[in-house]
């Protein structure tokens, strides 16, 4: 859906966001993408307005902090810490303006005495929909310690935390990987995980659009190429979904109305009255929808 429709019809976006088809990302999730990408890129100037927009979209302070903490695993402590420092400045500036933002709940304690390695394996298996009991291969066989760090720290210490859902954590992850570039195999893997945790192809296409608008054409083009590859491999043809979305746009924004039964039309046409004439207004305004082959006389 175009940005014009999003801005012009926020109530329509609300209806879509609560539909079972999940055609659009929620404003909160759109902000998570922009905040994560800009933090990973080190673009602190543009990060400030993105953080403000995130708070205004309904993200709590703790949700944004958790997103910025999460991304250090993919782009390093320096970027994450600078993002947190910038967020502190934004909160202080908003307080000076009298804006008090919701802190939100704290992270829940993790009361799981199983080994972090096993917990990480279980979470990774859940995310990838694949068992994690095979013999290490590739980089995991070449440097076994990194495979241990990956499962114990990334997928146990980080992914096991609440406040953010798996889907939101994956949006942080793919945003960071798109921002840093040169990590297409990892982006491919995490886009597959995005689908596994409930994000739709249409939402991932919107993710790519946000990356392009936030970071630039190159980053958007590169992310789109990987996404198209992932969707093609899964035989996920989004053209039918896009057509359905377009039909829904037309149905909600421009309903067909009542079938026209007078002799001024040949074929089938429908009339939806928009403004009725009254004592103050002598004009009527209507929207006419023509089926194929229908004409006015």
The N- to C-terminal Cα distance equals: 35 Å
Radius of gyration: 24 Å
Structural class assignment = mainly alpha
Residue share in β-strands: 5-15%
> Can you count the helices?
15
* Residue share in helix: 55-70%
Largest sheet: 3 strands, antiparallel
**Counted beta strands:** 5
Strand order of the largest sheet: 1-3-4
Low-pLDDT stretches: 1-21, 240-252
Mean pLDDT over the full residue set: 86
Shape estimate:
extended
Order of helices and strands: HHHHHHHHHHHHHHHEEEEE
Structure, explained:
- It is a single chain.
- This protein has about 300 residues and is mainly α.
- The strands form two sheets. It has a three-stranded antiparallel sheet, with no helix packed on it.
- The protein contains 15 helices and five strands.
- The N terminus is likely disordered.
